[in-house]
């Protein structure tokens, strides 16, 4: 079950969204191999060159000229994405020591470590735009940059770990597969690897819920309760509805975003319905039904006022998540100091060697 595939956990296939990631990877290689116009003819031609590269589905690279607003949009989005991966370690990290078996602990530990890795790829991609990781971390800690709303909800039971994998990683993949074709090369390349790993994450969550929903009545009830609590916050991850999305039009013109928030939300709902059926769980939406005309499911929208409240810092766990991150950052100060001192020592030694 990868992305929009569905079936029992043992019926994994490499198609669906993972197939799209592979196609995006091949397209990246082809774009790199294709001849593009050598270089801008003059400084007056920089904007024309940028537009031509984007139009031709080539990649903008760090060395290339880019409009300042494009750079700022990318820094905002990539940083928000990186912060989400790092803050997103907390809700599941909370369950590592309580996972029900050694195997479950090992799998969850690996998954949470992967999220840290995703944060690092993304901070590295943002750094190519001329901002340092220290600056980005400061912007998160002083509240000037955001992270995804979804990580401000609590993980009350073990089934929540399953729901995060299935729904949160599932929504993340639906949102991120198109980002593999983003016009900015370093972001697109980071997304390829991240999406492949997210497929595993989604699958492990689905497998947890499949086990619970085919277990005792209490386990099935726990799985249903997790779906009931995570469904609407997961739909809200895709952002405000198109009419209220401030950045979508420009980001789509620059080919940073390839689909609108509502298009991706719809795709996610359509993907989940059959997966929920296989699980034997009920999506908590009485108005969910197939619309033959649209060839898509009609569904109830999430509460966007709640989304705005959570984004602005007033969700169930915002304060706890930020306090934990600030504490972890303070606790890590000695590691950063030691690493800086060691790097300075090595640099001095190298200088001496060169001079000798
Ligand atoms: N949460 O104009 P738009 C993951 C803000 S990774 C918080 O539509 P845009 C993996 C938005 O920033 C999850 N803020 O914005 C994982 C803007 O505010 P600003 C993260 C939100 O950028 C799994 C304002 O609202 N994924 O889950 C949210 O065009 C499990 C107006 O919105 C990414 O970051 C929200 N949900 O579209 C890890 C993917 N929605 O900056 C651990 C990359 C909107 O003007 C465990 N990002 N806002 O003050 C994107 O694709 C886009 O940034 C969107 C928003 C689609 C999130």
Tags for this entry?
two-stranded antiparallel ribbon, mainly alpha, 2 strands, Aromatic_CoA_ox/epox, 356 residues, Ferritin, Ferritin-like, disordered N terminus, phenylacetyl-CoA 1,2-epoxidase activity, binds Phenylacetyl coenzyme A
CATH topology descriptor: Ferritin
- Which small-molecule species are bound to the chains here? Phenylacetyl coenzyme A
Strand and helix order: HHHHHHHHHHHEEHHH
Largest sheet entry: 2 strands, antiparallel
Unreliably modeled segments: 1-6, 8-14
Give an overview of the whole structure:
The chain has 356 residues and is mainly α. The chain has one domain (16-315): Ferritin, CATH 1.20.1260. 63% of the residues lie in helices and 2% in strands. It contains 14 helices and two strands, in the order αααααααααααββααα. It has helices at residues 16-33, 46-55, 68-87, 89-93, 102-127, 133-141, 158-176, 185-213, 217-236, 248-253, 261-279, 304-311, 318-331, 333-355; strands spanning 289-291, 296-298. It has a two-stranded antiparallel sheet. A hairpin with a 4-residue loop joins β1 and β2 (296-298). The longest helix is centred in the middle third of the chain and has 29 residues, at 185-213. It is globular, with a radius of gyration of 22 Å. The chain starts with 15 loop residues before the first helix and ends with a helix. The model is unreliable at 1-6 and 8-14 (pLDDT under 50). It binds Phenylacetyl coenzyme A. Phenylacetyl coenzyme A (FAQ) is lined by residues 76-77, 80-81, 84-85, 88, 115, 146, 148-149, 164, 168-169, 172, 175-176, 236-240, 245-248, 251, 257, 261, 311. It holds the Pfam family PaaA_PaaC. One of its GO terms (molecular function) is phenylacetyl-CoA 1,2-epoxidase activity. This is Ring-1,2-phenylacetyl-CoA epoxidase subunit PaaA.
